[in-house]
Amino acid sequence: MTHNQQHHYEPLITTAQLNHTAVYATDRYLSAEFIAAILGVEVASPIGPFLPVDLGNGVTLDFYEKRDEPIQSQHYAFLVPDEQFDAMIARLEAVGVTYYADPNHTQPREINRLFGGRGAYFDDPDRHNMEIMTRPYARP
User: 80: which residues sit within 8 A by CB, 6+ positions away?
Assistant: First the structure.
């Protein structure tokens, strides 16, 4: 092996994993910067028509502009560190975005305590229903 050769080891993939998903947006920069700012992560460089936001578990949200038809609201849930939750709520308040304890947005400025953690829902600029939670849902 020469000095310039490097070993690049791919992680062993033993089951299907979500790698990336497209998130439709009226303005990909506005939407990507919004969620990145709330979550405390970075927006990556554009890749073609996509503006990626890399999350800590290898999943990327690829923001894609769709202007020819209305954007259908989707739900995206983020498992976040408990010690960062309060800062995320504070960032929502700082930009004037209301958060809710429930997915139907009937309990404004409240959080939930599902599964022993804390959680909240809020809309992004295109009304995608975003969720932050500190504990994953208990599955039967």
Answer: 39, 88, 132, 133, 134
**Which residues are CB-contacts of 101 (< 8 A; sequence separation ≥ 6)?**
107, 110, 111, 112, 119, 120, 121
pLDDT at 130 over 60: yes
pLDDT tens profile 38-65: 999 999 999 999 999 999 899 999 999 9
Distance, CA of 63 to CA of 70 (rounded, Å): 15
CA atoms within 13 A on the CB side of 63: 24
Average pLDDT rounded to a whole number, residues 117-125:
98
CA atoms of 41 and 54, how far apart (whole Å): 7
Helix (H) or strand (E) holding 79: strand 75-79
Q: How do beta strands 60-65 and 20-25 pair?
A: parallel
Q: What is the mean pLDDT of residues 107-125?
A: 97
117: Cα separation from own chain's centroid: 18
Residue from 34, 55, 46, 51 nearest 128 by CA? 34
